[in-house]
Specification:
The complex is a heterodimer of chains A (about 300) and B (about 375). Chain A has about 300 residues and is mostly helical. Chain A has twelve helices and four strands. Chain A has a two-stranded antiparallel sheet. A two-stranded antiparallel ribbon of chain A has the order 3-4. In chain A, a hairpin with a 5-residue loop joins strand 3 and strand 4. Chain B has about 375 residues and is of the alpha+beta class. Chain B has 16 helices and nine strands. In chain B, helix 4 packs antiparallel against helix 5, helix 8 crosses helix 9 and helix 8 packs across helix 10. Chain B is elongated, with a radius of gyration of 28 Å. Classes of the chains: A mainly alpha (about 300), B alpha+beta (about 375). The interface between A and B is medium-sized, with 12 and 17 residues.
């Protein structure tokens, strides 16, 4: 995926010129709390901004919010300031670790309020959603009624509510922005498809042709058994390579044979067809054949 | 075309030539074992020959009840419904034999034999004076007596053959079945180790066989003729047992398939467990060979027992030896080995190819020609 362009100003919004004296990061915070002088906080942000950008970009990628870097960064800073109001150096933890929880909460808050898709109304609901999804995950994401009731019991909700919560969680997981927005050098905003259809591009077509040519070439170099097993396993005709066959025993309303897809065979049946006792043998032979095909196209993809 | 009652077979180099075709010796013994129960072949043949011995004994004693004679003819004709299912009778002229029987067992012939008996009785009842002066009774007619005696002889021989067929079938089947069940007792499946078992089962039963040495062409493509031994058989038993021992002499023996329980002829000493035919079971609605079915149920035989692999290994050994002796270049040898492997894999996958073209494709000349063609991109 193409990396989203991020404005240099957004990346260096806390940079101070000339650079302030370099201390340990924790020392800036301790000094700020002692003297209540925001200059030390600015110094801290000057040196911490690089790590901060990295964290924000992590959230940005995780939640597919490529165009929201500056806003996410601001949310992160808001969380950082909330953490600072509650922080005491005597607690034992460094501020960089302490602020992480607050910053993340702010980030999530921002995402819930800004992104399209499923939203929850409060942090409490969001926490419940996360918990429900975690519990459901523990049960291997089973859709069985018994599992839903088990999840409902663990999160203390009714089964119907739990279903809605889980549905919301699923929607959140599956949501992907179809368009990404970014600013170009001339600062004119434009949008681009996140998943554009490039199947008819000349380059794509050429590479596709090259890929298929290499694959068939490698396939034809395989041993007879390997070729036959692959055809049986992947479900195509050994002779004409078609993935369909005409079923002359099943005619349509015009009396013509129906066109049906060739079903892939199970390894057990493939093994029997080649006089092998074990399905594992057929599996190994297919895997070996596939690895030969992969080898043939490895410099292409 | 040979008559069924007195058919012959030519033997040469472990092969039997009969009805214009050539088979490995022992084929007919193995065929009897398999065909015996199929469609009740043996039962159908046996049931129509069970009463004819009464007619035989009456003819021996010198009398005949014509309706019995006609019924015997009709019974023998019924045998022909099942007889063509049994080799080698399918190769003989069944229609001609059927016509012969129909023409032989007629009311006219029956009456002729009765009249012959009656007239002969007058001759036999001559007194001393008549015999001294050769005064034959008026009933004696030399031409009629000759003709009737020949007719009687043909009837008796025909009855003897078809009556004997029942016992021949049962006896030969029982003995061959016992032999096939005891083959595994031998340490090795060759003539030396199988002969003691065969002699113990079959013993030394003499049977009349007329021998003649005749020139034959080994195959339709042969340009010259070679000498072969032609044997004339007057019973089915003598034919089957001759076929079995001629086969055993060349290392051929019947063996029972572990899956379909049918018998097949082995022409090598390999411990082959399964036949090359289809199993009586289907897997997911598809027909499957006995060997594949055995693999499916984890009863696969050793690789050396598989005829497909055996042919492949033999061919590969020959190719390697020829490469070692620089009779063929390295590139051709490599191409031939790869081609042989492809044929072997194809044969394992496709039973029709394995039972048909595979052996021909694996022949030295065919393999090298195809390998050379592929090598040079012709």
């Amino acid at each position: 995926m193409k990396e989203t362009y991020i404005d240099e100003k957004d990346l260096n919004m806390y940079r101070i010129v000339p650079a302030p004296p370099k201390w340990d990061l924790q020392e800036y915070i301790v000094t700020y709390l002692k003297e209540q002088d925001e200059r030390y906080l600015a110094w801290f942000l000057h040196y911490y901004e690089k790590a901060l950008n990295k964290n924000v970009q992590g959230y940005m990628r995780q939640f597919f919010m490529q165009e929201h870097f500056a806003d996410l960064k601001q949310a992160y800073i808001a969380g950082l300031l909330k953490a600072l109001s509650k922080y005491t150096p005597d607690g034992g933890a460094s501020f960089v670790s302490f602020k992480e929880y607050y910053a993340e909460r702010e980030i999530f808050d921002y995402i819930r309020s800004m992104r399209t898709g499923f939203t929850v109304q409060s942090l409490a609901e969001y926490a419940k959603l996360r918990k429900a999804m975690a519990v459901w995950d523990k049960y291997d994401r089973s859709y069985a009624d018994a599992m839903i009731e088990a999840v409902a019991a663990e999160i203390g909700e009714t089964a119907d509510n739990t279903k809605e919560i889980l549905l919301g969680g699923l929607l959140n997981e599956n949501r992907v922005d179809l368009y990404q927005q970014y600013a170009v050098d001339d600062e004119a905003e434009s949008t681009e498809e996140a998943h554009p259809d490039t199947t008819s591009d000349t380059y794509t077509l050429y590479m596709k042709g090259e890929l298929y040519a290499r694959l068939w070439d490698a396939y034809n170099k395989l041993e007879y058994t390997e070729r036959m097993m692959l055809a049986q396993r992947l479900g195509f005709c050994f002779d004409c390579h078609s993935t369909f066959y005409m079923d002359y025993d099943d005619l349509d309303e015009y009396g013509e044979p129906k066109k049906k897809p060739i079903n892939p065979m199970m390894y057990t049946d493939i093994a029997t067809d080649h006089e092998y006792s074990s399905a594992n043998t057929a599996h190994k032979k297919c895997e070996k054949a596939l690895s030969k095909l992969r080898e043939a196209i490895k410099d292409l993809i | 075309m040979d008559k069924i009652s007195f058919f012959s077979a030519d033997y040469r180099d472990g092969r039997v030539h009969i009805g214009g075709k050539s088979y490995p010796a022992g084929t007919f013994a193995a065929h009897l074992l398999t065909q015996y129960y199929i469609n009740d072949t043996a039962a159908r043949i046996i049931v129509f020959t069970s009463d004819n011995w009464l007619l035989e004994s009456s003819l021996e004693r010198g009398y005949l009840f014509v309706p019995n004679f006609l019924r015997a003819g009709a019974d023998i004709l019924n045998i022909f419904n099942a007889l063509p299912w049994l080799k080698p009778f399918d190769m003989l002229d069944v229609d001609a034999e059927r016509n012969r029987i129909a023409e032989l067992f007629t009311e006219e012939n029956g009456n002729k034999i009765v009249e012959y008996f009656q007239r002969r009785s007058k001759v036999m009842a001559m007194d001393e004076g008549q015999t001294m002066f050769n005064t034959l009774p008026k009933e004696f007619d030399e031409a009629f007596f000759k003709e009737s005696a020949a007719l009687l002889s043909e009837v008796q021989k025909t009855l003897a053959f078809y009556d004997g067929l029942r016992d021949d079938l049962m006896k030969a089947f029982k003995q061959l079945k016992t032999f096939a069940s005891r083959v595994d007792e031998a340490d090795r499946f060759d003539e030396e180790h199988l002969l003691p078992i065969a002699l113990e089962i079959f013993g030394s039963v003499p049977f009349p066989v007329t021998t003649e040495y005749v020139p034959i062409r080994k195959s339709t493509r042969s340009k010259t003729e070679t000498l072969a031994r032609r044997l004339y058989f007057n019973s089915y038993y003598s034919f089957v047992i001759t076929d079995f021992f001629e086969g055993l002499h060349h290392g051929h023996y019947p063996r029972q398939c572990g899956i379909c329980k049918k018998y097949f002829l082995m022409t090598s000493a390999a411990r082959q467990k399964y036949c090359t035919g289809y199993a009586p079971f289907t897997v997911k609605g598809k027909a499957i060979t006995c060997r594949k079915y055995a693999a499916r149920i984890n009863r696969k035989e050793l690789a050396d027992g598989n005829p497909v692999i055996r042919i492949y290994k033999n061919r590969c050994s020959a190719i390697r030896v020829e490469r070692q002796r620089v009779k063929i270049d390295n590139a051709l040898a490599t191409a031939a080995l790869a081609l042989a492997k492809e044929y072997m894999q194809l044969a394992k996958n496709d039973p029709d190819y394995a039972n048909g073209q595979y052996e021909t494709d694996m022949r030295r000349d065919r393999l090298y020609a195809e390998a050379d063609r592929r090598l040079n991109g012709k």
